[in-house]
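We append the chain.
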Amino acid sequence: MKAHEGKEEFRLNGSSLGRLDETAMMPVAFPLWSDAVVSAVTEVFKISKKDLLGKSRRRKYAWPRQVGAALDYQFGQSAAAAVGDTYGGRNYSWVYWSRATVSKAMGRSELTTGQVQAVYNLAAARYLKR
């Protein structure tokens, strides 16, 4: 399809997808809050799920992991021990510490608040409420 044909098709049909069936494209949705948070954190911070849920203590993975654990614990139905197990086999006290750390960082920086809010909004949009 040439550019001109694409413009004409968009004008006529309201879509330039051509042969693709638009109804087959579903939004990403998860039945569990923790899965939605993990997906949102990996997308916002651009890290892999393996790195997010792993044991690495590198700063590149530590902050996203703390944000994910804080949101997962605060807005999810899981206990702190379960959240800690999800995020690299950590102790329940680490989850409490992560929540406090994220809260303090949000109070100090608007950039941090924006990152956490972006993760929360994306996770909330992807969560299937029952």
Summary: The chain is about 65% helix and 0% strand.
